[in-house]
Structure formats: structure tokens, C-alpha cells
Specification:
This protein is mainly alpha-helical and about 350 residues long. It has helices at about 30-40, 45-50, 55-65, 75-90, 120-125, 130-145, 145-165, 170-200, 205-215, 225-235, 240-250, 260-270, 270-280, 295-310, 315-340, 345-355, and strands at about 70, 95-100, 105-110, 115-120.
Amino acid sequence: MTDTGFEKAPARDRRRFPGISSRAYEHPADRSALVALRKLSGFDTVFKALSGLLPERSLRLLFLSDSVRVGETQFAHLHTMLRDACYILDLEKVPQMYVQQDPKPNAMCIGLDEPIIVVTTGLVELLDEEEMRAVVGHEVGHALSGHSVYRTVLLFLTNLALRVAWIPLGNVAITAVVTALREWFRKSELSADRAGLLVGQDVTASMRGLMKMAGGNHLHEMNVDAFLAQADEYEKSGDLRDSVLKILNVLPRTHPFTTVRAAELNKWSQSRDYQRIMDGHYPRREDDKDASVSDSFRESASHYADAVRSSKDPLFKLVGDIAGGAADVGGKLRDKFTGAAGGAGGAEGKGGAATGQG
């Protein structure tokens, strides 16, 4: 790395992942949140009812008429990146992609029947080639995972919630679904970040892109290690009041905070799971139908348990301490009533308590 913590990788051949399943890169919290979303009372009914009402055709016509469609003769470099990303992740049908005039850097993948990828001019102008490659891979990851369907519903319901805000019960019902959708979508962004890394295969480029999204095109003023240190400070700083404020701050957002995304992606890039995928060992799409739902639940539950245990957040630490204390008390009660600590053991227990070892 350079003094600023960055280095640009040269153009190179990238590994391809034939038949890769989105399960290979999906964050455990993404899968569990999506399962929870589908179990939300009334969600299936609402989703089915809204599917026919969503203005998908209108959106397609809007982008076709008022944006620039990426192709061989328009934004050809983006077209090449898109085809390359689809080739690497083995997505057979290349989604349509549009560039929309908007100074705010952003990208999205929407659509019910067929996904559409939209990037803003602000994003195109902000990122270099390798950073943009990771973003395109990110959006293709959304398409492969089927995230675009729920993203479209989220956009529609968010707009609908504003229109029916004057209806108390109607607004409450829609707000509940929107909140659940946002929670899922924040987790899905972590999955898509991983897909972007699988496409770009350059973690420094992914880090650069996230840093630019946070601080603009001033890389000479930024440092990747310092940026990741911000994420660590954010997680462990403050008291219980700050923990509550963190939750309140993130609730209205569709994306996790940028430093958090960078830390999550950096951690995954150093994991055994990532290395196994790069070595060609990953779940295949042909096996998706045989994937165990219970295994997904267990993996998600294990992830959340590990997150609580390892978290430096004051609230999570309190939850972990309470859970650990409850387990310790439960063990002592079990020993007392089963006689496991009787007789001499009981005397030792008292002595241990006197010396601070109880």
C-alpha cells in the first residue's frame, strides 16, 4: 500500500464462478431477515396484491425516455463491465443498465420480472474503473439474489406511506412493512458488497469506492486504516444512550453506514469462506432446491449469537453479559438441585466464594 493506504491494481484476468449460487456470498443476516420478512403477518397478502399495481412498466418507460441506456455505443466502458460481471457470476441474461442525470452518487437494481440497473452520473464521475467495477458487480449480485423484486416493493410502499399518512391505521400497517423491508435491505447490501468483491477481486478498490461514497473524491486526504478505525470506534464508543441513538439513526436508512459496510467487507475478504469461493469451492445454483431451510436458520442464529458475543457496542455487551450471567446462575441452580455440588464440594464452593472464585 501507499502512504495513503491505497494502491491501484493493474488490469488482469479474473476468476469466474460457473453456476454460483447467491447462497455463496449472502450474508447470514440477509437470509434471516428475508425469512423474517416473508413471515411478517400479512406481508405475503400485501405483496401479492401490490405486485399487479406496481408501476414497473412506467419505470421502464421513464428510464428509457429520460436516461441513457448503456450499450456498445453509449457508455461502452460500463457495458463492458456489466457483461464482465455477468460472466464472472454466471448470470445468463444481462440486465438493462441506465445512467441517470443526478449529481448524488447512487446505484440501484429494481424490477419484478426483469431487473434494471441504474447508476447516477454523480457515481460515474466519482469512481475510477476498478471502483466502478465493484459497484457494477454489487448490482449484478442484487439481480442474482432476486433482491430487485423487494427493492421495487420498498420504493412503491415508501411513496405510498407518504400519500396515506393521514390515515392512522393504514399508515401504521404500511410503516410496519416498510420498516421490515428496510431492515432486510440493509442486510442485503452487505451481501451485494460481497458480490462486488467477487467480481472486482480487488478489496482495495472496494474500500476506495466506499470511502469516496463517504468523503468524496479526495483520496489523497484519506486513509483506509483510519477509515476502518472509525467503524471500530463507532461500534464500541459511547454508552447505552448512544446504542439507542445508533438504532434510531439507522432505522430510516436503506443502506448500512459506510464505515460499517467497509469493516464488514474487509473482514469477509480475510475469511475462509471468501478464500474457498476463490478456490472454486462454493454452493451451486443447481443445488438451491435441495438447500436446507433449517440449516439457514441455524447459520443465521449462530451469526447473531456470535455478533452479540463479539460486539463492542455497549448495548450488545450488556445483552451478552446478561445472557452469560443467566447461564451461570442457571448452572449453579442446576448443580444445587441435582446434588452435583453437595458435601465437600459445597464446602469448597463456600471457600471459593470467600476467596473471590465463586
